[in-house]
Amino acid sequence: TLRLAGVKEVEIMLPNRFADGYGMSTKVVQRAKETGVGLVITVDCGSRNHEIIGQLNGIGVDVIVTDHHECSDTLPPAVAVVNPKRRNWLSSDELRELAGVGVAFKVAQALASEGMIPAGQEKWLLDLVLIGTVCDNMVLKGENRRLCFYGLKVLEKTRRSGLKELMREAGVKRLDTESIGFQIGPRLNAAGRMETAERALELLMADKKTTAAKLALELEELNRTRKEEQRRAVTE
User: Fold this and answer.
1) Within its chain, how far is the Cα of 236 from the centroid?
2) Whether residue 71 has pLDDT greater than 90
3) Is 91 a residue whose pLDDT tops 70?
4) Within a 13 Å sphere around the CA of 94, how many CA atoms are in the beta-carbon half?
5) Is 24 exposed, middle or buried (0-12, 13-18, 19+ CB in 10 A)?
6) What is the mean pLDDT of the segment spanning 31-59?
7) Longest pairwise C-alpha distance within the chain
8) Side-chain half-sphere of 92: how many Cα atoms within 13 Å?
9) Whole-model pTM?
């Protein structure tokens, strides 16, 4: 979305669940200092990270939070907090059920309506919205159902080499919520569970088939390892 909006430099930071836990950590502040960014945009976190956002403000970095988790009594000191669970915010019950990826998509829709990204281009993001919504176990009613309905149509003709190769490696025969939840999702998640989520990100952003095929195979192997470790743990 940011690239569609003409942003030239986008630094991506994925927290490592083993070292950083969940949400924003002091590493965000350190990374912001190192890269000299002027704006941090969160996805799926930040609503309760008042201290970290305050530290970012202290070094001259603005923050926009996009999130779907419950908010605390006060909002963090961000430029904006885009969260349908904000208290006293007039969002419908449907929007309150959005996954983090759904909230991010609403930002894309808003930018499109403001003419900041080409009209109609945001719909090609719906394959990712579908996968994120299903794999976050969101209730598929209302807006979530609409997003997933059209997301399936986009996924069927996705332009993403990474998803094509991942589905081929996983042996996906039919696209539905079951294949997404039990074949596509676990392979994407295996990267962060076993090593680093960077692998999954690289796969989703790969523009060359050879690169995508290599990464899809790596995720397939990581998923096999994950299943084996899970089997051992259950047996024990």
Assistant:
1) 33
2) yes
3) no
4) 8
5) buried
6) 96
7) 57
8) 6
9) 0.92
